[in-house]
Amino acid sequence: MKKLMAMKGFSQKALANNSGVSQKTISNLVANNGVLKSPAVSTVESIARGLGVSPAELLNYQSAAASPTEDDPYRDLSCLIRDFLAADSEGRKAILRVARNEAIHAKQI
């Protein structure tokens, strides 16, 4: 995110104004190398729109046309996020249901 802000000439305040996301959230993302505990998809989409890039570009994920390599430790997560961002509202709900069920199952192991 820092690189994109620098490339586009955005300060944190300018990005906040351009994206509609609070400056505090932008500041937290910049301070934590883009990591928030549970960023809302709408936040990612708003910031991406504010920067004039796709959410996948903002998150530095591969494009929908490309597939992560087999040795990528985040391959499954990358694919899930790519599919989530490409899905419509019903598709996103279905993906969230599956993820929630997987999380519940993982806690029982």
TrEMBL record:
Domain HTH cro/C1-type residue range list: 1-58
Pfam families listed in its UniProt record: HTH_3 (PF01381)
Stored SMART domains: HTH_XRE
A single MF term (Gene Ontology): DNA binding
Family annotation (Gene3D superfamilies): lambda repressor-like DNA-binding domains (1.10.260.40)
Membrane-spanning residues: none
Protein known as: Transcriptional regulator
